[in-house]
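Format notes (please read before filing issues)

Several people have asked whether sequences and structure tokens are stored in separate files. They are not. Every record keeps both together, in the order shown below: the sequence lines, then the token lines. Line labels are part of the format and must not be stripped during preprocessing.
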Amino acid sequence: MKNFKKTLFCIRQDYKRRNFKSVFKAFFCAEFRAVLAYRVNHYVYYNISTALAYILHNRTKKKYNVDIYPKANIGEGFVIAHLGAIVIGDMVLLKENITIQSGVTLGQKDSISQMPTIEGNTYIGTGAKLLGGITIGKNVVIGANSVVLNDVPNNAVCVGIPAKVIEK
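Then the structure lines:
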């Protein structure tokens, strides 16, 4: 989202996915404001100043208890269902229509591993951890408190520690 039109498009899609009855109600929803803050931080990071983006990022992290790095690439239709202890690393790639519950971590297994890539229409349950350079397919449900360390195919349900595919 390195240009302003793409940023506005993503914000509109995030708004539509939440099914708000009015724009006024959207700004009373802290989860939507946290996503909006990420969109602004991402735009500022790539177009204005990385230092300013990290200042805004730190403010967002303290206010909403959501740690989404400005460098992360998140597609349109991103929904945070509940705030609290959400961490999304700096090189994570999230495609369109992702829903995340509270306590989710998307990041590295260790200091040298890659970050996860999550395809479209994915639901990530409360407390799930997705670690390492894994790819999560389209139309996937990841259960609460799952620890995903391996790739997950399309149209799957994944649960457990470590996570296993239980349904395709």
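For reference, the curators noted about this record: The chain has a mean pLDDT of 90. Residues 30-47 form the longest helix (18 residues).
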